[in-house]
């Protein structure tokens, strides 16, 4: 037990570069595997949380642009969504890495200030960017569908109240669209969370062996030739966190539907799509 | 190999490019697109079969079979698919080798020795003496199984939903005619469910297309592998030296996938329109209105 506490102290934050530098080489205990894989999970949560946060705003903008009548706004949004939904996330990671490596090493001069670019090729920034754009494209399609399915009566009611423009959008259109889109968006969030496992298997190298949960699980499975311990551990972690994610989004769903008695049903988790 | 390509260093411009793009390795690169298409062609029906079995099992009246079906379909949902892509091939490979080791090797020697998984040479799969293509084919075979297991679970979800969507009255009518449950399944349920399953299956096909680059993770020499091999910077030691061109190779792959998904979308639109013609659904109603 004490030994395990020591292991947690040594490796609990290994994926962030804190604690013991060297990974265990032989005689892997169950505790070491659980700790290191859990430590890698920090990255998965980091990628998912930030990509969802930024992607949400971008997705809203894209959905509005796609629903717009002005072709100058609609066409770029349509192309962006097609590009990211039509190609595999895996390829997007590779391509983004190769693109970001092309940036000048010394940095770019903007108005006399040198902007450093080397950090963009690191996973924490580059992969986050790809994940954010990707989830924005998928969510935008969901929000766009919701915008098209707004009940006609609610819009007419808003018109009857004399609302127009921004007021109408903020008070009626957007809340209703969110309410309609939320179950689908919950699934999208889960897919994105699962997609974070791809980061260290694609272009972005794991810097000083600071990888995500699957990176460490793969390390153990390769070293012990035994897939039956490490992979179920990751799977268990992911099931737990997925349930947490569903609970969190369920709370938001309850809030969005609070004016409709009985409408805030439990979100049914209807998966499951890969990119 | 083209005839004018004997001395690559003397070539310029387009001639150089035409020779460069027809080297043996490039031919393997083009062939690997075939590998992807082959994987799609094999996996799709196999996964559909797995899915059909899973959906049938989860509707079974025998509790054990029903639980197996339920666990199979829900297992793949909560866990990232890539974990299965990494897990299933190793687990299968070790399973096969363990079975063979019980037959061909001394059974008293344990397979797991500390951190090692060791079987005798006769039980190795594929045998170390077999040619390279057997190793490749075996890798693809394991990949197909892994894809079929994961996508079978997705398909089982879709088909299970479609079976529930067939109007209950239809099945009850069949029962009233005195058909056995097996006959109801075969004559009423299965023929009618496809209309309801098509949107989900179409979606699944798109996802399957986009999952094929994961072959690279499984160690198959697929398009991603060749793009990295060929695109990497080549020094003077090579016949065709060039800087790091991986960006262009990945762009080509991206275009390939965009074309695949775009084309599939067009085809599914057609099938959808065809299936909803004259149907008592919202889509069918819209078509009727548009026609008049």
Automatic annotation (TrEMBL), chain A:
GO BP, sorted A to Z: amino acid transport
GO cellular component: ATP-binding cassette (ABC) transporter complex
Residue intervals passing through the bilayer: 45-65, 77-97, 123-144, 189-208, 228-252
PANTHER family: ARGININE ABC TRANSPORTER PERMEASE PROTEIN ARTM (PTHR30614:SF10), MEMBRANE COMPONENT OF AMINO ACID ABC TRANSPORTER (PTHR30614)
Classification via SUPFAM superfamilies: MetI-like
Name of this protein: Amino acid ABC transporter membrane protein 2 (PAAT family)
CDD domains in alphabetical order: TM_PBP2 (cd06261)
GO molecular function list: transmembrane transporter activity
A matching Pfam family: BPD_transp_1
Gene3D superfamilies registered for this protein in UniProt: MetI-like (1.10.3720.10)
Localization, UniProt: Cell inner membrane; Cell membrane
Domain ABC transmembrane type-1: 41-252
PROSITE patterns: ABC_TM1
NCBIfam families, per database record: HEQRo_perm_3TM
Native source organism of the sequence: Paracoccus versutus (Thiobacillus versutus)
Protein family membership: Belongs to the binding-protein-dependent transport system permease family. HisMQ subfamily.
Primary subcellular site in the record, as a coarse category: membrane
Alphabetized InterPro entries for the sequence: AA_ABC_transptr_permease_3TM, ArtM/GltK/GlnP/TcyL/YhdX-like, MetI-like, MetI-like_sf
TrEMBL record, chain B:
Gene3D superfamilies in the record: MetI-like
Single GO cellular component term: plasma membrane
UniProt keyword annotation of Membrane present: yes
InterPro entries in UniProt: ABC_transp_permease_HisMQ, MetI-like, MetI-like_sf
Main location as per UniProt: membrane
Domain ABC transmembrane type-1: 33-259
This protein's UniProt keywords: Membrane, Transmembrane, Transmembrane helix, Transport
The keyword Transmembrane helix belongs to this UniProt entry's keyword annotation: yes
Cross-referenced Pfam families: BPD_transp_1
GO BP annotations listed: transmembrane transport
Places the protein is found: Cell membrane
Membrane topology according to the record: Multi-pass membrane protein
Transmembrane segments: 27-50, 71-92, 137-159, 247-268
Family: Belongs to the binding-protein-dependent transport system permease family.
Protein's name according to its UniProt entry: Amino acid ABC transporter membrane protein 1 (PAAT family)
Organism: Paracoccus versutus (Thiobacillus versutus)
């Amino acid at each position: 037990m004490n030994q395990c506490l020591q292991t947690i102290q040594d490796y609990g934050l290994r994926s962030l570069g804190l604690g013991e530098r060297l990974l265990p080489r032989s005689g892997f205990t169950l505790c070491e595997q659980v700790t290191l894989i859990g430590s890698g999970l920090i990255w998965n949560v980091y990628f998912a949380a930030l990509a969802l946060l930024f992607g949400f705003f971008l997705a809203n903008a894209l959905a509005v642009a796609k629903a717009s009548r002005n072709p100058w706004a609609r066409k770029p949004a349509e192309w962006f969504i097609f590009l990211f939904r039509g190609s595999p996330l895996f390829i997007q990671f590779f391509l983004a890495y190769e693109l970001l490596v092309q940036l000048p090493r010394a940095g770019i001069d903007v108005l006399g200030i040198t902007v450093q670019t080397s950090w963009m090729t690191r996973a924490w920034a580059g992969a986050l960017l790809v994940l954010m754009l990707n989830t924005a494209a998928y969510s935008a399609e969901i929000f766009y569908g919701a915008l098209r399915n707004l009940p006609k009566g609610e819009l007419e009611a808003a018109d009857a109240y004399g609302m127009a423009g921004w007021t109408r959008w903020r008070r009626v259109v957007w809340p209703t669209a969110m309410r309609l889109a939320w179950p689908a968006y919950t699934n999208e969030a889960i897919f994105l969370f699962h997609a974070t496992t791809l980061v260290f298997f694609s272009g972005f190298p794991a810097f000083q062996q600071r990888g995500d949960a699957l990176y460490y699980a793969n390390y153990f499975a390769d070293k012990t030739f035994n897939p039956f311990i490490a992979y179920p551990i990751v799977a268990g972690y992911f099931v737990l966190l997925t349930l947490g994610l569903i609970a969190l989004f369920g709370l938001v769903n309850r809030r969005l539907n609070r004016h409709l008695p009985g409408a805030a049903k439990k979100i049914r988790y209807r998966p499951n799509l890969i990119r | 190999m083209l005839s004018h390509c004997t001395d690559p260093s003397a070539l310029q411009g387009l001639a150089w490019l035409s020779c460069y793009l027809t080297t043996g390795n490039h031919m393997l690169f083009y062939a690997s697109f075939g590998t992807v298409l082959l994987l799609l062609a094999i996996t799709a029906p196999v996964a559909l079969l797995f899915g059909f079995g899973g959906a049938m099992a989860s509707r079974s009246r025998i509790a054990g079979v029903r639980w197996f079906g339920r666990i199979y379909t829900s297992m793949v949902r909560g866990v990232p698919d890539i974990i299965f892509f990494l897990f299933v091939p190793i687990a299968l490979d070790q399973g096969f080798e363990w079975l063979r080791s019980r037959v061909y090797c001394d059974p008293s020697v344990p397979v797991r020795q500390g951190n090692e998984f060791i079987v005798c040479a006769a039980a190795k799969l594929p045998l170390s003496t077999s040619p390279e293509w057997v190793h490749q084919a075996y890798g693809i075979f394991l990949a197909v199984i892994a894809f079929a297991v994961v996508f079978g679970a997705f398909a089982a979800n879709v088909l299970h939903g479609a079976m529930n969507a067939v109007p209950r009255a239809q099945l009850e009518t069949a029962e009233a005619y005195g058909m056995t449950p097996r006959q109801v399944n075969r004559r009423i349920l299965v023929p009618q469910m496809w209309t309801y399953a098509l949107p989900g299956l179409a979606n699944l096909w798109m996802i399957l297309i986009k999952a094929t680059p994961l072959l690279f993770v499984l160690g198959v020499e697929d398009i991603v592998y060749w793009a990295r091999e060929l695109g990497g910077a080549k020094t003077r030691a090579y016949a065709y030296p060039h800087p790091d061109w991986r960006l262009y190779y990945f762009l080509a792959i991206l275009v390939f996938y965009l074309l695949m998904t775009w084309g599939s979308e067009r085809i599914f639109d057609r099938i959808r329109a065809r299936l909803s013609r004259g149907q008592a659904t919202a889509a069918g109603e819209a078509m009727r209105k548009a026609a008049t």
